[in-house]
Amino acid sequence: MRRAPQRETPAALRAKVAFLRRADAYPERPWRVQAVETHFSWVFLAGRHAYKLKKPLRFGALDYRSPQARRLNCRREVRLNRRLAPDVYLGVVALTCDARGGLHLGGRGRRVDWLVKMRRLPASRTLEHAIAARRVRDADLRRIAARLAGFYRAARPLAIGVDAYRRHFVQGVRAHRRYLARPAFALAREPVEAPAKALLRFLRDRGELLARRARERRIVEGHGDLRPEHVYLGAPPLIVDCLEFDRALRALDPVEELAYLALECERLGAPALGARLLRAWQRTVADRPPPALFEFHMAWRAYRRAVAAASHLEDPRAAHVAKWRRRARQYLRLAALHARRLAPREE
């Protein structure tokens, strides 16, 4: 008989966070600890290192409710992220509790939780920061393209049927449209409907472009969350924070992943970077997908990101509600822009 996941009380989580905010919790004794809360984790910036504590929650395919599940996920996060940032992800550290109830990082006692330990990287090195400063160089894009080309080349092709691959997009568009139409999100009907109709029309009329990619065994296990904030410029560049909790979300065409990065560059005000990155990537690989496929994936990813932004509005405790509603609308505008480019041009 399968046992129910061990639940953690809010008080227990608060105690862990309070302990990890203290400088004396860490072997290196940093002069200051900065705590950053994300949707699924707490990240503690402590001197030269960063430590990530998973929240004990369940969200879709993600289930961190038990310490065992959090330990497994920490190990998976380290293993997967070492593919593109091998010297950043240093390992998994236990949070222990002694006989008196005192917490320790990596000490003796009962193991009550687990953290991912990482080498801390300066935010000033991210592609996001470089875009804001308008200092992205062609050499940076060539290095990113070469890094990704080598990564995808080394990845084993995934066995996925042609019909299943195309059905994944059809079902995804329909599910996203239903989700975004919820009255609680206060999103206008036309910006939700128009991209969905264009994407479904493309899948009906030109779905062979996607089918061909599956037949050619182009689908691999990628990064899954390739955004400018996760790319650190350098020689070589480092790419962190992959989507570790769901392998299905990492199963994708490299063209889709590049389109996602291009989309996020466009959202940050650098629409030309995507085309430049794609050209740099194509110079290193024997792959020339049609431009329509790239546009499809940009529209598809924008629609998906609108869903991710809207999901923040479901949490009654969510801060910055106005911000996330604006972000969802921004992604819907980008989805509409790229979806319009999918329409066949008259000769």
Can you tell me about this structure?
The protein is an alpha+beta fold. It has two domains: 10-120, no CATH class; 127-340, Aminoglycoside 3'-phosphotransferase, Chain: A, domain 2 (Alpha-Beta Complex), CATH 3.90.1200. The protein is built from twelve helices and twelve strands. The chain has helices at residues 10-20, 67-81, 127-132, 138-154, 162-180, 189-206, 208-215, 247-250, 254-267, 272-282, 291-311, 321-340, and strands spanning 33-37, 41-46, 49-54, 58-59, 62-63, 89-97, 103-105, 110-119, 220-221, 231-232, 238-239, 251-252. The strands form four sheets. Strands 1-2-3-8-6-7 form a six-stranded antiparallel β-sheet. A two-stranded antiparallel sheet has the order 4-5. A two-stranded antiparallel ribbon has the order 9-12. β10 (231-232) and β11 form a beta hairpin. α5 packs across α7, α9 (254-267) packs antiparallel against α10 and α11 runs antiparallel to α12. The longest helix has 21 residues, at 291-311. The radius of gyration is 21 Å and the shape is globular. The N and C termini lie far apart (65 Å). Residues 1-5 have low confidence and may be disordered.
